[in-house]
Amino acid sequence: MSEVVFEETATMIAAGELQSFVPFGREHCRNHPNAFNLQLRELQPASELWSSDGAAGLVGSLQEVSLQERERECWQLRKGCEGVREEEVEFEEELYAAGAVVVWSQGSRSQASNVYKAFTVDGPVQQALWCNFAAPQNQKDEEQQEQQEEQEEQTVCIVQSSCINVHTVSGKDFISPLPFQVSNVWATKFGLLLERKNTTTDVQLTAPGESLPTVFSMLHPLDEIAPVVCKPAGQFEGSRVQYASDSSRRIVFSCCRPSLVVSYDTVMGTHSVWALRAVTQDERSTVLQCSAEPVGTPLGLMALGLLTSHLRNISRMDSPGAPGLGTGTSGVVTSGSPLHYGALHGHQSRIMTSSPGSHSRVHSPSISNMAALSRAHSPGMAAPSFSGASRFNTSLHSPSPRVHHGPAPSPRVHHGPAHSPNSTANDTMLALEMEPIVPDLCMEQLWSEAAGCHRDMSSQASKVFLTSDLCENRYLCFLVESHQQLRCVKFMESNNTSQLIFTSVTTIAAKDAEPLQNIDAMLVLEACGSLVLYTGTTRVSKVFVPGLLSPSFSLTNHPSHLGTPAENVSTPANAGSRHLQRLDDAAMPSPVSELRGPNIKHHEGSFLEDYSFQHATPCIHALRDSVCNRVTLELTSGSMLRISIPEIATSELVRKCLQAIRFILPKEAAMKVLVKWYNIYNAPGGPSAHVEWNLFVTCFMTLMGYNTERLAWTRNLHFEVPLSPVIAAKKARPSDGGSEEDLDYLLGSHYHRQMNPQPACCNPLSSESFSSVSSPSGPSLRLDSAAPLFPHVPALFYVLHLLHQELQLDELQRARASSLVCLLQQLARDLQLDQYVDQYWRDYPSLISSFTESCVIDQALIGQMQRPSFLRAEPPCVLSWLSGCLRGEESPPFPCLPVICQRTRLLVLSYALYIVGDGSATSTGAAKYLVKLSAGQKYCTSEPLSRRQSSVKVKSSSESLAEQLVVWLTSEGFTLKDLESVPFGVALPIREAIYRCREQPCSDWSEEVCLLIGRQDLTKQAHKMTLAKSKASVGSGLSLEPPAATEADEEEDGMSDIIQEVTGLIWSQDLRVQEVRRLLQSSRPVRVSVVQLPEVSDHEYIEEKENKLLQLCQRTMALPVGRGLFTLFSYQPVPTEPLPVPKLNLTGRAPPRNTMVDLNSGNIDVPPNMTSWPSFHNGVAAGLKIAPASQVDSAWIAYNKPKSPELAHEYAGFLMALGLNGHLTKLATLNIHDYLTKGHEMTSIGLLLGVSSAKLGTMDMSITRLLGIHIPALLPPTSTELDVPHNIQVAAVIGIGLVYQGTGHRHNAEVLLSEIGRPPGPEMEYCTDRESYSLAAGLALGMVCLGHGSNLIGMMDLNVPEQLYQYMVGGHRRAQAGASRERHKSPSYQIKEGDTINVDVTCPGATLALAMIYLKTNNRSIADWLKPPDTWFLLDFIKPEFLLLRTLARCIIMWDEILPNTEWVKSNIPQIMRGTFDPSEDINMETMAQAQDYITAGACMALGLRFAGSANSDAFDCLYEFARTFMKIMSFAGTAAVQTGYYNLQTGLSMILLAMSMVMSGTGNLKVLQLCRFFHKRTGGEMNYGFHMAHHMALGLLFLGGGRYTLSTSNSAIAALLCALYPHFPAHSTDNRYHLQALRHLAVLAAEPRLLVPVDVDSLKPCYALLEVTYKETKWYKETTVELMAPTMLPELHLLKRVKVKGPRYWELSVDLSRETQHLQSILSRDGVLYVKLRAGQLPYKDDPQGWKSLLASTVNHRSSGIRAFKPEAISTFTSEPALVSFAEFFCKTSEGVQHRDDTLLLFSAMLYECVTQECPEMLPTYIAIEQAVGALRRADLQQTFPLWQMRLVVELWDSRVQRGPANRHDALLTSEFLPVMKNMVDAVLDRWLTDNSCVLRSYMRGEALPEAARSIMLASFLVYRSIPSLKNTHAQLEGCSSLGDLLWRSSRLRIPLRDVLRLVPVLLGSGSGPLGPSGLPLQAF
After folding, report:
1. HSE of 1803 in the Cβ direction (CA atoms, 13 Å)?
2. Taking the model in full, what pTM does it have?
3. Between the CA of residue 1484 and those of 1487, 1535, 1546, what are the distances in Å?
4. CA distance 1268 to 1249
């Protein structure tokens, strides 16, 4: 055997999986209704088609067409691995182009191909390719783009002659016109590279010495095509940066990762490699400057200008692609997958991979001029050589894209006066001043072939690809077909990875080649036609393709089958039966029948004879389309076969060993080993998979110099036979966990026999091995020092030892570790590393005892072995390292192989972090715990290891350590699944950390962390779900569905979308929500009940009914305003349906006969336009239902536009509502313009207010312009008078206020200030409804300067407060300043005002402006201006209404003084009204009563704003009391009511009602609801439209958003509420005189979601949960904590310190608001869904309000009795964990057929109880594992000592926790009595063994060789569990101790724990006679 290994013989490997290959697209195109097939159908009349000969004719013509098409077809394949499929399937994607059709299909080995997308374009497809474009997130900030990772858009690009169609995976289509003809297109990391076709006219056109760019880039389909700059290498003149304009240079290849381009120079005949990157600023300027120098003649410059313009012109003509081409989603292309055009069809191959292109795209066309740009030629035109400029114009006649190429130039391309050939050059120069197109990309030359070595013009590479070899060297290979050679250029990254360095070139003779990406190899077709596998430049072996060389394929003499030689090859359809039928009748079985089966062996001779047939058989003439390890062979017969090349290893263990070998060996040696192994493993007819490991051991040991035939155990490996022929026939599947091969191997190995309970001595193997030991000097057992790996044995041994340690930390891999140990122990023996052998024996006592042979290595040869520095005598053992950590000892850093030993690294650092408490372990301090091996360490480089200084490190609190650990593990990608595979002892500290974090997690952890700690509630929270979205899953069980009969009515009222599950929890006791719906519905006719008195005639009776109906309609028309607030944001619209708008029904029904009553009968006068504003409000109400989070786009908004003009008012309201919920920003500017030009007043109002609300406070310029057009004061004085309707002006002014809210913008403030007092002009303008305009200007001014107070920057000269004061109290008008002076020269001819201010107009606006500017500033001097006058005389001069406004304004300025009690309200009434009156004074009682009521109402209003949304009970009681008082006054028809007047009282009452509903907003308070209902019923008398509006707004605010929203008290919200609740309500439905009705809806801007809805994470249903809310301390109250039962409204977040879900029912969850409120805000904005998780053993509040039914309630007092009382059957009532339920089902009950012992059942039940009550169900496996380990030890059937290691770690962790003090015990996971009991059992077993066998232990510690029988498993167990160090040096130190103290001192240096030393005392000190130590202490005490 050994001779064979080292001669490179002509080895061969077998290829697998032969299938015939036909591109799937070809099949698909046959059935595709493309143009060709359609033409054919048209050729013949239908009758002929069906006649027999007609059909034949059709078939004939079809064949012709397909032959033509076959000429033009091309395809490429790539590896696909996408998110489209959940499981990670490997599949291939194919892009096939033929004619005008492009087919993108996907298919894998296991699944048939299917079409993913198919595209049909207009013209013939020149090329189709995949390309990834990087789309920057944000166009505006280019600086940030550098940092941003840009989004990748995966696309298919289809190149036609005049344009490129780009189709993205997400469904966008672009068409990019091409300004020139393109010869080739390449996909790169940045986008597309285009190569321009060189045409003859170029030569004529270019000025001397100047050539045009040939390479252009397109970074995005919407970007301009820009020339590429190139930077050649070299020091001489040519090295400066210039355009890539060398027409002799052709690109032959491009790839994305690394970003390279390979070009070929047709003149020099050499190839060059270029790096493609974004162009730098310097290069850009260099190029643009140098092109500006005059070149040759001025013609060059002119040419440039013209062509730049021309290029631009064409590329600007973007047309949006047809949107109907299918919108699928496709995932990400993984990197490094080669996709090839075949070389056959003359297409260059390419590699295309995705890349996160993160370059910045620059839009700065600032530089003046630019050199040669490409000309655009009309392909159909000849270019006669004119002279001078006229030649130039010809070149301009280029057809625009998509125009048929005829000689006629298309006229729409021309620019400037260049139409006629007669125009002179100078004209043209002047006409065109174009800015140049800036280059985006630069090609920098990296490497070039040496010139002259092959000056053969045809040596252009036909194929270029990247490949890498097994040792990770990378090569760029190009195939020069004319020379039949493959040149491989090795390249590597420079140290800072910024540059690629190309080194050596190797040439391989080859006819064709393809890379095999995932096995690091390439397949080469040699000239003789044989296939050879190379890895890099190293030849591996020939590849044998079964069946290709056998005569059975020789089909030449069977003409019937001529076209289809591949039919006989197995296709996927018949792959199961791989038998080919012979065409002749010979009975010889075909060699293909079984690829690796035994019968190939019979034919090996015949294959060589078959070589003579080769001329007759189809042989391979090309390779193409390699994907992963599959490649297509093209045969000379024209058919194609797809084969796969086998991988280097399928077994995980072999793969890991190879990795380790490759890591440690020098590259050449590693390559030898890998190639050798590959050949042995894949030899034809070679081994089946399950002897892979045996094969590996044999191969590996032979390479090291062993003679495997002579070593007993390796010799045995040769003879192991597979157990069953069935498994042998199956191909091995690559597997992650374990596969059948491992099992078979274990069953067949003698390790398995060793484990069988036969006594060891009767094993025939061991007797054999003893005989061989007896002649150790025999020549057989020497190592051959000439073997290639002989020098590296120690290094290899150490690496494999570390791999063994790694495998031990993974339960799934541990079985493999035992097979690795056989190899390790042999190497350790031969290297005389006794401690290693001892360690292996301790781990696998029974296995290692059977191996005894060792091979002698000559002393002379030992010098040849390189003993690396890292190989220490003491073996590194990861378990003892971790155990040392737990005992608090200091250990040297643990060695670790980077990449290979990931698990070791993770666990070592986790222990360092969590147990040692070193917070830096995972970041900077890792070197203290881990030492990384590197391949180059041959001698010691690391400085002597210093001990860690524990004193320095301050222990951070264990809480934060646990958090750090969990977060770090997640960041390393560690999941719960990984944790399950960590052995139970090692995993315990991690589980403990997780358990601690679970109790009190941070609210802002990522989803992965929450998954790891097992808090599904938090995971779900991090998932960002809204209730409406989860309704699909949740809403199926809605509890409060109305009965089905009323469905039709329910739909119409527009209120059916309130989430009833939530409202049902908030108001569970009554049906108040139904009542509100009843009050607010306006879609059904009202009941008109009028009794007909005897004396009333029928006609009068009808009139009476209609009058009554008119009164009722005043109420109906006012309802939508309230309904909009009630249904706020409660609906997610369906994008394919229009928004349902409920009707506004103004008819009535009269009982008893239910006759219809209608207003349009003409009996009574109905005001005109009565319904226009109510319809507007109805539209707003419908639009406000749309939630801000829903998907709304511009098209949907336009789609809702009504057909009938009478619905235009509703649509106007709908637009305003969309603005209020923020969706109007998506409306295209074009559409906004459309709506405004219609001139529909309502639409303009709705749109202006909507757009402004959507852009609140942004100072958006485009919106400002939009509003400015509608405000004459903002236009320049000389501009034309636009006739803007008054209401639109009002809306626009408010719009300015909204857009500039809080910005303090000076110019707008100045204009608005003067507009408050705008005088009426001549000719009637500005004369009607002036009050509303003045008010709007005041409100807008207040919003612009909102809350700025006296520090209005830069407005001191405007004297804003003084001016406002003057507007408020009157006085002389000041001269108009500035722009508006011109306007107001002549006074109005209608209104005589004189030169004083009309206070009645200006006062309200000015008062509110002052209030808003000084809002919450507590500015007393301003507030005093607003005090009501304190003399009767002055009081008479002020309208009572203005007193209300002044009081309101004064109170909200003195914000902090507002107190929620009646005394404070009354304190606002002036002194003179509160005292007793002197009857002598002439007091107008009416004045006094009105003033008092209005002042009270104003104060109440201020109180409502101050406590808006707070549900403050004091404020509510106070307001309620005043409401009762007012109602009492109204109910007396006595003096007071008469004096105040009904209207005034009603106004005051409405304001108080609104104030109350503001305070109780969203809470649905019953008392307020009763008041609203009371007013709803009053329809007669003075109850007008405005009062109804006020009352129903109050109702809407009370149930804002169905109880999910409430009001905010931010400045912005107060401003919105002041606009919306302005105390003057309209008198009738068309009244806008004092206040524009549309502004009533601005209340929405004050709403904010503050409802917190706990949702059970298991059932996904809303539930009750107890919250603890802590308020921050303020000057009014100390820090207080209240308990609320959620779902509940939270107070405003800035008042809160903490919100916490309280136990004991649910897992605690705390949100700390002192740090940041963002998290809670995002929860609230997503429907307030807070996921909570029920603790095990608890029931939700709904089922168990008192908490008496829970599992723990009955057993709180007696814990032990709890276990007995616990019935496993009852488990399902208190835990939903399926694992626990089934555990109880199967393990805790007696079932027939399985005889459980009672105590086991009891034990399992106790474990289950423990897990449930302690809330750690994941500890159940750990409990069981501990129990199993201890049981096995007691029964003495322990096979390995591994479980004891784990047990020891558990005990040590427990000890370390208990030692810290009893306080810490509750932290530990294992708190019960279970662990101490188990520990005692282990101690008892081991102590019993020790008393019997102390002599064995003593002789072991002396280092004497023990006889076979004594080396028992128990001894190993004792040594492991008692942590007694390794044998050799120990005894000398412990043996001769005189006393116990001496012993203790010595043992502490050996790091033996005290508890274990005391067990050894009798052995070491005494005679070992008895269990009593010399100190007289019984051993059991320890």
Report:
1. 16
2. 0.71
3. 5, 13, 21
4. 13
